[in-house]
Structures are given as C-alpha cells and as structure tokens.
Amino acid sequence: MLAIIGKSGQLSQALQELCTSIQQPMIAFGRNDIDLLDIESVLEAFHTHSVSAVINASAYTAVDKAETDQQAAFALNDLAVGNLAEASKKQGIHLVHVSTDYVFAGDKGSPYQPDDELAPNGIYGASKAAGENNLLSKYGENSCVLRTSWVYSKFGNNFVKTMLRLMKEKPALGVIDDQIGSPTSATTLAEVCLKASQSKLIGVHHVSDEGVASWYDFAVEIQRQGLDKDILVNKIPIKPILTSEYPTHAARPHYSVLSKSSLKKALNDIELPHWQHALALVINDLA
C-alpha cells in the first residue's frame, strides 16, 4: 500500500487523482489520521495499513507566516520528516520527500544543480533545508528528495487561481518581473513522485516543468489562456514590476531555475511538459 502523507494539499490531491486513475492502491493520511510529530503514531499507521512505500506531500508552506511562526515551520518541515525517515527505515520502505527551490539563495544566474550549496533566505527555506538534511542523514540509503518550484494546480490556493480571480476583479495588475523560475503543475510533480517511488530512486533531484518564466510572464500567459477558454471576459493591463515594489516579510529567490539533468538520467529520460502546455491542462480543468 502506498502512503501519501498529507490529504488536502495540492500535491496530495494530484497524487490521489493519479493513483485512482491508474488503480494504484493508496491511502492518504491527513492531520486527523496521523501525528507526524509522534514516531509511534507514524509507525502504528504504517503497520495498520501495511504501508510498502511513502510519498511525503505534507509541508508547512506559508512562506511569510513562517518568519513569525518558526516553531511550527520546523516542526512540520524538519521534525516530522525525521520521524517519517525513522519509521520508514524501521519498516524497510522507500520514502519520497518533496522540497523546494527556497533552499537556495537565488542569486546564481544559471540552473541550480542538486548538489549546489544550500543558502536559504528565510525561515521557510531554512526549515525545508533542515528537513532534507534530517532525512538524508537518517535514511539516505533508501529515500530521495525531489526539489520543485512554483507549484500550482486546479486544487487549493495558488498563483494561477489567484491571478484568474484578480483578473476578474481588478481593472489592472502589477506582477513581479525580476523573479525567475519554472512553474510546475502538481500533476507533473505527482507523476514524477510516483515514478520515483516505483523505481526506488535515491539521492537529491530536481523536478519542474520545462521552460523558464518570471511571475509577470506567467501572469500574461494565464490571462491569454484564460481569455481563450472564456474563463476571463475582459483583457486587463498587466504591468511588470520589481520585487522592491511589492515588499513581503520573507525574501524570495530572484533566480531559482532548477536543473533536471540528474532526474532525467535516473528516470530513463523522463519527459516533462513545457510549463505553457501543463498550464493549458489546468486552465482547461478550471474552464
């Protein structure tokens, strides 16, 4: 039985949908089903449901709130990951853990490699980096870390759904144009997580959809596709702005494009869609 840790997040819902579509037996554990901060609770859940593989799709992802909620961020992103690693090791089962581009400083200027230095700018990134290290030190021999970026989907709250809402409500928008990365559909991420689990992938790898964009580029394409699918009626002006014009509690990486070379090599040249094509599938679902 495949255990998906997390029940209501974007990745978890995408994983549940994928597993259902291919008749992959799975169980999703939410916060009411398992206490990730209690190793005995984790072990009991794994034993009760005869868990044979684990994908950790749970995380504390409130980037700005983490700056004033450090304890909660580290509890879920570090301590809980350590417990999952220990429980998986005791049961002898493979563990896939999802991490983030925020573990990097974001000042490199060329795609980040999996073994590049970790230098997070804020508490969220620091907690995710700590979780990675915790997992790899405890159970690196039978686990993998998949770092990703700019995740969105038809589920939950995300940049795509926020932009579509604002494009209906506002006469104009300003969107940041000096942060560069790669949008990633939760569907793509779910497919890679499942393949990583099935092939018992080890080590640290990167996954995102192909192509590079700024948040402004992303917003412009969301509007174009939204108009094409009649989700949006009126085209509004979208202005490129600087990060300095939109201050946030936590600093964001200015450049966080991830190199996927090691993933492609490890998973037999897995094909990843261009972000514009992946976006079209989500826009279609939302139409």
Describe the protein's architecture and organization.
The strands form four sheets. Strands 2-1-3-4-5-10 form a six-stranded parallel β-sheet, sandwiched between helices. The model has no long low-confidence stretch (mean pLDDT 97). It contains nine helices and twelve strands. The relative contact order is 0.15. The chain has helices at 10-21, 39-48, 70-91, 123-139, 159-169, 186-198, 215-228, 261-266, 275-286, and strands spanning 2-5, 26-29, 53-56, 94-100, 143-148, 151-152, 173-176, 180-181, 184-185, 203-206, 213-214, 238-241. It has one domain: Rossmann fold (3-Layer(aba) Sandwich). Strand 3, helix 3 (70-91) and strand 4 form a beta-alpha-beta unit. The protein is of the alpha/beta class. 41% of the residues lie in helices and 16% in strands.
Number of strands: 12
Number of helices: 9
How does the major sheet shape up? 6 strands, parallel
β-strand amount: 15-25%
CATH fold node name = Rossmann fold
User: What radius of gyration results from the CA coordinates?
Assistant: 19 Å
Set out the fold topology.
Blueprint: E1 2-5, H1 10-21, E2 26-29, H2 39-48, E3 53-56, H3 70-91, E4 94-100, H4 123-139, E5 143-148, E6 151-152, H5 159-169, E7 173-176, E8 180-181, E9 184-185, H6 186-198, E10 203-206, E11 213-214, H7 215-228, E12 238-241, H8 261-266, H9 275-286
Parallel strand pairs: 1-2, 1-3, 3-4, 4-5, 5-10, 6-9, 7-12
Antiparallel strand pairs: 8-11
Helix pairs in contact: 1-6, 2-3, 3-4, 5-7, 7-9
